[in-house]
Design a protein that fits this description.
Blueprint lengths: L2 H28 L8 E14 L21 E15 L2 E11 L8 E12 L6 E9 L4 H4 L12 H4 L6 E9 L2 H12 L11 E6 L14 E12 L2 E15 L14 E13 L4 E16 L4 E16 L1 E3 L2 E15 L8 E14 L4 E15 L7 E14 L1
C-alpha cells in the first residue's frame, strides 16, 4: 500500500466512523424514557411528644393529634412515602400512602391511602388541567399546605373542620398561567411555606363524605377557589377566596340523640385568605363562615346551625449558614360543629400557640410549640365538657 492509498483510506475511515457515531447519537436521542424512568420518590416522617408541662389530661383534639391528653407518650404522627412523576407531557400522577394513620387514640400505625390522583393537561403548557381521583379539596390555604411545610403542628379547627383529612374523591379543574405555576412551586422549594400549585382558579365536584369513605347520598359537593400571588418590592403576597356547598350525611350518632330522618344536613361555607410570605416577616390569616350539622345539648338533637371562625399566624424567617430558624405565633378561634365526629360534636375553641421551627438543612427539622387552649366540645354523651390547659409539644421531622 503506497502513501497516497494509505492517506485516502485513513481519511475515508475517519469520515465513516464520524458519520456512524453521529447516527448512533441521533438514534439514542430519539429513544424516549419508559414511564417508570420518569417516576420519583420522596417522603417524610414526624415523631411527636406532647407530655411535657401538660396541665390537663382531659384536654384533647380528636381531629388534630390523637396523642393529646391522657398518658401521652411518643407518637408517630405521619410516615409518608410519595410516588409521583410527569409520565407524559400532559399526564402527571401522584400517590401518597400514610403508614402511621391513627383511626383512634388506641389504634395506631395503620396504612391508609391519602392521595391517588392524576392530572390531565388540556394545553401544551398544562395551564389548564383536570385532577381526577382522591386529592385535597381546594378550600383553605392551610388545608392545602402540606403538613411537611406547615409551622403549627396541627391545622386550625376553623377551616380544617370543613374537610377531615383535607381530602375527598372527585374531579377538580385548575387553571394558572405558566409563570404563576412556577411561582407556586418556588414558594415551596425556597422554604417560604407555600401551599403548592392549586391554580389561580379552581372548580370541582366531589363526594363530600371525606377521604376513604364511600358516598352515602345522591348529592355532590361543589367547590370553587380564586387565589392569586403577586410581588410588592421584595415581598410576595397572596389573597384568595373560596367556597363550597353540598349535603352531608352524619354517620356517627349516639343512642338517644335526635336527628333528621335521613341524617342529611346542609353543608356550606365561604372563606377568605391572606398570605404575606416570610421574607423575612410572614403572616397567614384565614376566616370562614357557613352552616352545617351541630349537636344542640338543649334539644338533645343534631340540627343545621351557623358556624364561624379563623386564625392568624405570624412568623419571622432567620437564615444562618445552611440552617433556618422560624419563630411563630398563632391565635385561633372557632364556633360550630364538627360533622365528622360523634353527633356532629359542638365546639367552642380559643387557642394561642407560640413556637419555633429549627431546620438543620433540608433533611431534619425540630419544632417546639407551647399550646394554651380553651375548648368546649360536647355531644349527647358529654353534654358539659369544657377543658382548659397548657402543654409543650415537640416534633422531630425527617425529610427524604
Amino acid at each position: 500500500m503506497n502513501k497516497i492509498t494509505l492517506i485516502c483510506f485513513l481519511c475515508f475511515g475517519t469520515i465513516s466512523f464520524s458519520q456512524v457515531t453521529q447516527v448512533s447519537k441521533d438514534s439514542t436521542l430519539k429513544i424516549s424514557k419508559k414511564w417508570y424512568e420518569k417516576m420519583a420518590i420522596r417522603g417524610y416522617t414526624q415523631i411527636r411528644y406532647n407530655g411535657l408541662l401538660q396541665t390537663n389530661e382531659d384536654l384533647s383534639c380528636e381531629q388534630c393529634d390523637k396523642s393529646w391528653g391522657g398518658d401521652g407518650g411518643f407518637f408517630i404522627r405521619r410516615m409518608r412515602i410519595i410516588f409521583f412523576g410527569q409520565i407524559h407531557p400532559r399526564v402527571y400522577f401522584y400517590i401518597q400512602p400514610d403508614f402511621a394513620s391513627a383511626p383512634s387514640s388506641s389504634s395506631l400505625h395503620f396504612t391508609q391511602l391519602r392521595d391517588a390522583y392524576f392530572d390531565v393537561g388540556i394545553d401544551e403548557k398544562n395551564e389548564f388541567r383536570f385532577r381526577i381521583g382522591q386529592s385535597k379539596v381546594p378550600f383553605g390555604f392551610e388545608n392545602m399546605q402540606s403538613s411537611q411545610n406547615r409551622l403549627p403542628l396541627d391545622r386550625a379547627d376553623a377551616l380544617n373542620s370543613a374537610v377531615s383529612n383535607e381530602r375527598d374523591l372527585g374531579v377538580f379543574f385548575y387553571w394558572a398561567p405558566e409563570k404563576t405555576r412556577k411561582l407556586f412551586s418556588s414558594l415551596v422549594n425556597d422554604g417560604l411555606k407555600g401551599s403548592g400549585d392549586y391554580g389561580v382558579f379552581a372548580f370541582g365536584a366531589y363526594n363530600g363524605q371525606t377521604a376513604n369513605r364511600p358516598e352515602v347520598n345522591k348529592n355532590r359537593h361543589i367547590v370553587s377557589r380564586i387565589s392569586y400571588p403577586f410581588q410588592v418590592k421584595n415581598q410576595i403576597i397572596e389573597t384568595g377566596v373560596q367556597a363550597y356547598k353540598g349535603k352531608y350525611t352524619v354517620l356517627s350518632t349516639s343512642s338517644g340523640v335526635k336527628y333528621a330522618a335521613d341524617k342529611l344536613y346542609d353543608d356550606e361555607r365561604v372563606a377568605g385568605t391572606f398570605v404575606l410570605y416570610p421574607k423575612p416577616f410572614g403572616i397567614l390569616a384565614e376566616y370562614n363562615i357557613g352552616k352545617g350539622p351541630e349537636f344542640d345539648k338543649f334539644a338533645d338533637s343534631i340540627s343545621t346551625q351557623r358556624l364561624s371562625g379563623g386564625f392568624i399566624t405570624a412568623c419571622y424567617k432567620i437564615n444562618f449558614g445552611d440552617q433556618t430558624l422560624i419563630p411563630f405565633v398563632r391565635y385561633q378561634q372557632y364556633k360550630g360543629g364538627k360533622k365528622h365526629e360523634l353527633d356532629a360534636r359542638s365546639y367552642r375553641v380559643e387557642e394561642l400557640e407560640i413556637g419555633t421551627e429549627w431546620q438543620m438543612g433540608k433533611n431534619f427539622e425540630l419544632v417546639l410549640m407551647y399550646t394554651m387552649s380553651s375548648r368546649r366540645f360536647e355531644d349527647f354523651v358529654n353534654k358539659d365538657n369544657y377543658q382548659r390547659g397548657n402543654l409543650l409539644r415537640i416534633q422531630a421531622q425527617m425529610n427524604f
